[in-house]
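I am writing to request your help with a piece of structural work I have in hand. I set the record out below, with my sincere thanks for your time.
___
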Amino acid sequence: GVIVLVICAVGGYFLFRDAPEIIEWFKGFGLWGPFLFTIMLSLAIVLLLPTPFVKIGAGAIFPFWIATLVNFVASMVGGLIAFVLGRWMFRETIQASIQNDVRMQNIEKALNQDAMKISVLVRLSPILPDEWLNYILGAGPVSLRVFLISNMSNLIYSLIYAYYGHVLGILVLRSSGMSEVSHTNGALMMLFAGLIATIIATIFVTRAVMKALS
């Protein structure tokens, strides 16, 4: 895991350094650019890579609503592939790896009692990486219908990542910088208010999850 994180950090450094070229490379594909990015993001989800950085990158590369759509579709497609792999290929391996983890055992017991509620709450909280959840839910007592419905809650984070990626792209990659972010009255206030609201909402959801699991 540490090796993977180091590789991602090094790769992220070089990608950020060459960000303008990468953005232009994706734009060079025209209408196929978002489609190609969706495939790459779906693959990253299946490979358990830290995809929040990639989803933020989508916001920096594409227009906001296209980036949101790319993030959401990739989350659904990549999540479904991971769920199927966790259910049919790696189920015994995953169950063996979490049998000594009290937190995982609590989640599995809670899923047996109320699969839909727990699946959605755990999705919305940062207790576990979303990429791991696809495999854990696939190996657990969750039906495909419950998984797909709960995975739709990723729309919230798809919007958040796309928005902050959009702002980051303006601040870092464009010469207009902060002036473009504040082109309307209260834009910066909305930006920071949204960040604070996201943090507060995450705290409340996490507390709700912990209460449900206990």
